[in-house]
Amino acid sequence: MINPKDFIQAFRDLYLNSPQCGSWTRASENCDYGDIMTVSKDCYLCFNSGNCRNAYYCEDSRALTDSTDCAFCEGCELCYECVDCDGLNDCNYCQDCANSNGCHFSYDLRRCKDCFGCVGLRNKKHCIFNEQYSKKDYEKYVADLDLEDEKTLALIDKKVEELKKKTPRMYAHQLDTTKCVGDYVYHSKNCYMCFDTRHSEDSAYITQANLDMGTKDCMDCGPIPTGMDRCYDVAYSHYLFNCNHVYWCGNLKESEWCICCFESDHLFGCNYMKNKHKGFYILNEKVSEADYKRLTAEINEEIKARGIYSLYDLAHKDLKDGRVDVSDDVRDRECKICSADFKIVPDEVKFLRARGQLLPVYCPACRAKQRFDMRNKREMHKRICDKCKKTLISTYPADSKYVVYCLDCFWKHFD
Ligand SMILES: [Zn+2]
Ligand SMILES: [Zn+2]
């Protein structure tokens, strides 16, 4: 039986010795140079994207075809250097544009065709820097531009910046929202400080809940929290109910401090487990329900006393300081990582206290960064699978301290 005082080290040993997936793809073909790619084909150095075909250097996007260097885009084709765009065809250097064709160097266009250097236009054709041209003049102007010339590019930038300054814009990117504070929030209600979030309700500090199932009654979740209900401190996971401090898990209930666990209930400090519905597990060992309740309460007290606030802390924080004084003061705080001042709002206090969690000592941005940093950097290395020895392109370098498997070996290991 685990001594609560030994839990932190035992968790770290378990994490270090569990196999990691070298690069993760699902239902994808020829997307090996990249990570977290789903239902995609022929992509190169793309990350966290789905339903893409022939995309290069794209991140956090859905349904891109024949596109390069795009981020936070959806349903775009033949696009280059676009950010936060939706339904574009043959567009370059566009931001916040939707349902448009053949537009370049533009910002906030809707249903436009063949526009250049424009800002805030709707249903327009053949405009240059927001002025109307004939089709012939437009085509001549664009054909004569030398986009290799840095002076021309600087001039375009200057004119677009001027237009951006004088064109009114929405206070936030929100659509179909009620009482939401945040940006890029859609179809959501009562959300506080949420970003890139859809279909969420009564939640705070959620990031990149981009899919059809967002979060409900959650705090500090994301990137990629899909279908979460009553969760706290979660990243890269889907379909969780009442879980705290979880990373890379799916279909879990009532679990805490877990990494890479699936289809289970009542896991605590577990790593790499699947299909454990009938039982209670601590550090991958089965225990009785009574022991589970007693030990998890004791371990959580120990974790708090050591100044561990997040799963990232549990896995990586340098604990040489020993025991720390835990403040329960609800006044504004200074972040212990970046020193920025931040607020703790009343709903947050209520949420955390109800779950027996400490009030945060890190600001929301540092908390989000910690969850993002649970993953590897978005860079690829050549290495071998530690099981079958085949060559892999992985986010884990060859000298990584972790045990790294190819996708096949990784899933086989679970069975
Ligand atoms: Zn901070
Ligand atoms: Zn392998």
Instruction: Kindly state the percentage of residues in helix.
Output: 10-25%
Strand content: 35-45%
**Ligand set:** zinc ion
| Molecular shape | globular
DSSP strand count: 33
Based on secondary structure, the structural category is: alpha/beta
Low-confidence stretches: none
Individual helix count:
8
- The value of Rg in angstroms is 24 Å
For the termini, the CA-CA separation is: 25 Å
List the helices and strands and how they pair.
Elements: H1 7-17, E1 19-21, E2 25-26, E3 34-38, E4 46-50, E5 53-56, E6 62-68, E7 74-77, E8 86-89, E9 92-95, E10 98-101, E11 104-107, E12 113-116, E13 125-128, E14 131-132, H2 135-144, H3 150-166, E15 174-198, E16 201-209, E17 215-216, E18 219-221, E19 225-229, E20 232-235, E21 237-241, E22 244-247, E23 250-253, E24 256-265, E25 267-268, E26 271-276, E27 280-282, E28 285-287, H4 289-305, H5 311-316, E29 333-334, E30 341-342, H6 346-354, H7 364-373, E31 381-384, E32 391-394, E33 403-405, H8 407-414
Parallel strand pairs: 1-33, 2-3, 3-4, 5-6, 6-7, 7-8, 8-10, 9-11, 12-13, 15-16, 16-18, 17-19, 18-20, 19-21, 20-22, 21-23, 22-24, 23-24, 24-26, 25-27
Antiparallel strand pairs: 13-14, 27-28, 29-30, 31-32
Q: What can you tell me about this protein's structure?
A:
- The structure is a single chain.
- By secondary structure, the chain is α/β, with parallel strands linked by helices.
- Among the domains are: 37-166; 381-412, no CATH class.
- The protein is built from 8 helices and 33 strands.
- β31 (381-384) and β32 form a beta hairpin.
- The longest helix is centred in the middle third of the chain and has 17 residues, at 150-166.
- The chain is globular.
- The two termini are 25 Å apart.
- The relative contact order is 0.10.
- The structure holds zinc ion (2 copies).
- Residues 385, 387-388, 390, 405-406, 408-409 line the site of one zinc ion.
